[in-house]
Every structure is written in C-alpha cells, then in structure tokens.
Amino acid sequence: MNDRLHNTTGTGLDLVGCPACAAPAEVVERYVLDSTDGPIEHATVLCSERHRFTVLVERLVTPRTEDRKAGRWAPR
Q1: Residue 69 belongs to what H/E stretch?
Q2: Whole-angstrom Cα distance, residue 4 to residue 75?
Q3: Which of 15, 19, 39, 44 has the fewest Cβ atoms within 10 Å of its own Cβ atom?
Q4: Which are the contacts of 72, defined by CB distance < 8 A and separation ≥ 6?
Q5: How far apart are CA 15 and CA 48, in angstroms?
Q6: For residue 4, which of 20, 12, 15 has the smallest C-alpha distance?
Q7: How many angstroms separate the CA atoms of 27 and 47, rounded?
Q8: Distance (Å, rounded) from C-alpha 68 to C-alpha 76?
Q9: Domain boundaries, given as residue ranges, for the chain
C-alpha cells in the first residue's frame, strides 16, 4: 500500500516529513539521477518551516495512514 498522502481534488499534493524538523513537507519535484549502481530516484522537498532538501525517495518519511484518517500529522 502506498502511504503517501494524495489530494483527491486533483492537485497531486504529496506530503512527507521534513528531514530536518519532521514538519509537514511537500515533494515539489521528483527525478532520477544515474549512479554507479544504476538509476536512483531523488526528490526536492520544501517544508512548512521553509527548509529545502534534495533527498533519496527511499528515505522520505510519510504520514501514517491511521494518523491521516484522524487528522493528525505524525511522521514515522
């Protein structure tokens, strides 16, 4: 199951936890970079506290499904 929060209004909002402060952050760009081990997916993340990072997609922290349903933000 994909744990990312997707906005059903068609805006495609993709929320994760900020790597620095765990505040809600939006993935503003996704792209693939080549490496000696093959292509690796990266993302640019911008948080509500204005931190901006480029991170490996596999390291993104997503909200828990049960916390989303309850209306709480709780990064893993």
Answers
A1: helix 65-69
A2: 11
A3: 39
A4: none
A5: 11
A6: 15
A7: 9
A8: 12
A9: 24-69
Q: What is the pLDDT of residues 18-72, one digit of tens each?
A: 989 989 999 999 999 999 999 999 999 999 999 999 999 988 887 654 455 455 5
pTM for the whole thing?
0.63
Could you tell me what percentage of the chain is helix, strand and coil, using 3-state DSSP and rounding each to the nearest 5?
10, 40, 45
The DSSP annotation for 41-72 comes to EEEEEEETT--EEEEEGGG-B-B-HHHHHTT-
**From CA 15, how far away is CA 26, in angstroms rounded?**
5
Token pair 């059903």 in the structure block, residue: 8
d(Cα 32, Cα 10) in Å, to the nearest integer? 24
Q: Are 5 and 15 in contact (CB under 8 A)?
A: yes
